[in-house]
């Protein structure tokens, strides 16, 4: 009888010892899981100031293939620096008959775009602006209204930056700088494409004159890039 009691007591002590060891092991495991290590990396600003080649707005992983309405304009602006306008399309509109105005005509470009690249490390943002001029021929200066329509913003190949914002797809005021795209702080990094004449609303030109004279009329769109949102 005494031997049985001794065995029972020993078995109980053994179970308590095993439970204590198991709890200690769990405590140590939990303590190891709660530990932290550090991961560090140094990022330095790029020193690449070379010109950025234009890319295909339909597939930004490919070079710009050109536009039949803007023949020969494929190489880009050649601008160098950390914040650049890399490419600007020339817009061409459907010919219209001379008659009584106003009259509206649509752009015929298939790959019209403006390409911007921000390689700065500051993330301070930028603003893309455009200043339209009047359209003139040898015979007449037109009063015109340009509307960008349902333009689209596309990121360059592999660009994971937050997108800038379209702030004007309506009427552009001639003779002044119109804000078109604004990149707030920490947005619009890398390469971005403003693709025109896409979607449900084409890029349009409205001629406001009542009397129209036949001829070829030309004007300019002066695109500029400021180094901060405005």
TrEMBL record:
<dbReference type="InterPro" id="IPR027994">
    <property type="entry name" value="WxL_dom"/>
</dbReference>
<feature type="compositionally biased region" description="Polar residues">
    <location>
        <begin position="35"/>
        <end position="47"/>
    </location>
</feature>
<feature type="domain" description="WxL">
    <location>
        <begin position="34"/>
        <end position="229"/>
    </location>
</feature>
<feature type="region of interest" description="Disordered">
    <location>
        <begin position="35"/>
        <end position="77"/>
    </location>
</feature>
<dbReference type="Pfam" id="PF13731">
    <property type="entry name" value="WxL"/>
</dbReference>
<protein>
    <submittedName>
        <fullName>Extracellular protein</fullName>
    </submittedName>
</protein>
């Amino acid at each position: 009888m005494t031997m049985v009691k001794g065995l029972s007591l020993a078995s109980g002590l053994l179970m308590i010892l095993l439970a204590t060891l198991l709890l200690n092991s769990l405590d140590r495991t939990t303590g190891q899981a709660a530990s932290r290590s550090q991961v560090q990396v140094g990022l330095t600003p790029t020193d690449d100031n070379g010109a950025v080649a234009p890319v295909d707005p339909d597939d930004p992983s490919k070079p710009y293939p050109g536009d039949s309405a803007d023949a020969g304009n494929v190489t880009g602006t050649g601008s160098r620096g950390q914040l650049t306008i890399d490419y600007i399309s020339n817009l061409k509109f459907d010919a219209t008959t001379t008659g009584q105005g106003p009259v509206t005509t649509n752009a015929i470009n298939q790959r019209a775009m403006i390409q911007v690249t921000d390689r700065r490390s500051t993330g301070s943002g930028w603003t893309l602006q455009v200043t339209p001029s009047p359209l003139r021929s040898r015979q007449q200066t037109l009063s015109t209204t340009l509307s960008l329509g349902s333009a689209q913003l596309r990121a360059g190949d592999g660009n994971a930056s937050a997108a800038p914002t379209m702030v004007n797809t309506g009427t552009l005021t001639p003779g002044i700088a119109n804000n078109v795209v604004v990149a707030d702080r920490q947005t619009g990094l890398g390469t971005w494409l403003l693709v025109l004449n896409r979607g449900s609303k084409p890029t349009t030109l409205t001629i406001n004159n009542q009397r129209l004279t036949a001829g070829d009329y030309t004007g300019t769109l002066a695109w500029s890039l400021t180094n901060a949102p405005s």
